[in-house]
UniProtKB/TrEMBL annotation:
It comes from the Bacteria. Residues 11-63 form the DUF397 domain. It comes from Streptomyces sedi. This is DUF397 domain-containing protein. Pfam families: DUF397. The lineage of its organism: Bacteria, Bacillati, Actinomycetota, Actinomycetes, Kitasatosporales.
Amino acid sequence: MPTQRPHLNAARWRKSSYSDGGYGTCVEVADGCAGVVPVRDSKRAQGPVLNFGTATWRSFLSAFGDRTVG
């Protein structure tokens, strides 16, 4: 089922505490988007955004023991 794109003009982005291990890799998620978790590369804030359904995002986090962005 397609995930609806949220309006991100006023999104509150936060960077993962596990981002950037010296390699310049930074992932951010936006909070407050009902049913969707937007994810982007913080180095390209105006670049593309991946939108995951909340159930899919929870499944992803559980595969990593909730040690990534969440």
